[in-house]
Design brief:
The chain is α+β, with helices and mostly antiparallel strands and 144 residues long. Helix content is 15%, strand content 26%.
Length: 144
């Protein structure tokens, strides 16, 4: 048992001693390995009241502000990521769900509900709509 522990510690010491930097920086693309961008929706673990977020499966139209749409350079943990709707809504809490990627990977479609408007009646509040993000033109706009 002690031999195995010493062997494990020796291996760890050798690996740490190499001081290899495996983090992902903005390096030129590898001509052999193919990397694909990763799009995802991030949502806070707690809602506005501080309670754990629990989606209402029976009410998919419910507005749950705080979601963000991100695009990462690739699937590595340290790769660069960018919030796609930050310029559109600034610091306003919006909701996004049902993200779908086109077969060629250039277009993202998603359901988005803009932030609620202050002092506006419920029937005049923004509604859910389909939005499109194009990677080739780097634009976000309603899909209609």
């Amino acid at each position: 048992m002690i031999k195995h522990t010493l062997l494990l510690l020796a291996c760890l010491h050798c690996l740490i001693g190499c001081n290899a930097d495996i983090s992902v920086q903005d390096e030129p693309n590898d001509p052999v390995a193919q990397e694909y961008p990763l799009a995802f929706v991030a949502r806070p673990l707690l809602n506005e009241d501080g309670d754990p977020y629990k989606p209402e499966l029976a009410a998919p139209e419910q507005f749950n502000p705080g979601a963000q749409l991100f695009l990462k350079q690739n699937a590595f943990a340290e790769s660069a990521e960018r919030e796609l709707l930050a310029e559109v809504f600034a610091d306003e809490p919006y909701d996004v769900k049902d993200l779908v990627v086109s077969p060629d990977g250039d277009t993202l479609l998603f359901a988005l509900r803009p932030p609620e408007l202050a002092d506006v009646a419920d029937e005049l509040q923004p509604r859910w709509s389909i939005w499109r993000y194009s990677r080739s033109s780097d634009t976000v706009a309603p899909a209609y």
